[in-house]
Q: What sequence folds into this?
């Protein structure tokens, strides 16, 4: 069996347009996304491999074409309900600025937390809730 990802486990998320998803996750968040080489007839998808688990993004139209029984459910339930994706990032201020420039919704604005991270909650272009964290660098005096 040929797997489209390197990890033992995976989560597949359905999106409206791969190009928009790629612009957000690879372009703005700078995560190590790649387009997967698909088998003939298989849907094109994006993959990010992370420490034992992969996120796979597939366009909704491809999922419906492959599994037509799901079409009704996609119309019943909005994407992202009950799912939160957490990512550690670098340059969270720059990411915040890019998210604001793209007019994406921010749920909780950037804040330094007492547990040593800068944190921001936002929604990706498909409505998935994304929590971004960047560890706060402390000097030797603990500040």
A:
């Amino acid at each position: 069996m040929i797997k489209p990802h390197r990890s033992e486990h995976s989560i597949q998320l359905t999106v409206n347009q791969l190009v928009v998803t790629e612009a957000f996750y690879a372009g703005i968040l700078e995560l190590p996304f790649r387009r997967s080489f698909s088998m003939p007839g298989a849907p094109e998808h994006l993959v990010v491999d992370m420490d034992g688990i992969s996120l796979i993004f597939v366009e909704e139209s491809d999922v419906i074409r492959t599994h037509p029984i799901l079409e009704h459910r996609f119309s019943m339930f909005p994407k992202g309900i009950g799912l939160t994706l957490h990512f550690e990032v670098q340059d969270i201020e720059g990411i915040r600025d890019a998210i604001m420039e793209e007019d994406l919704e921010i749920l909780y604005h950037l804040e330094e937390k007492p547990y040593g991270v800068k944190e921001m909650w936002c929604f990706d272009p498909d409505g998935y809730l994304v929590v971004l964290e960047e560890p706060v660098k402390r000097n030797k005096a603990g500040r």
Observations:
- Residues 9-135 form a domain with the 2,3-Dihydroxybiphenyl 1,2-Dioxygenase; domain 1 fold (CATH 3.10.180.10).
- The radius of gyration is 17 Å.
- The helical segments are 18-28, 60-66, 71-76, 92-101.
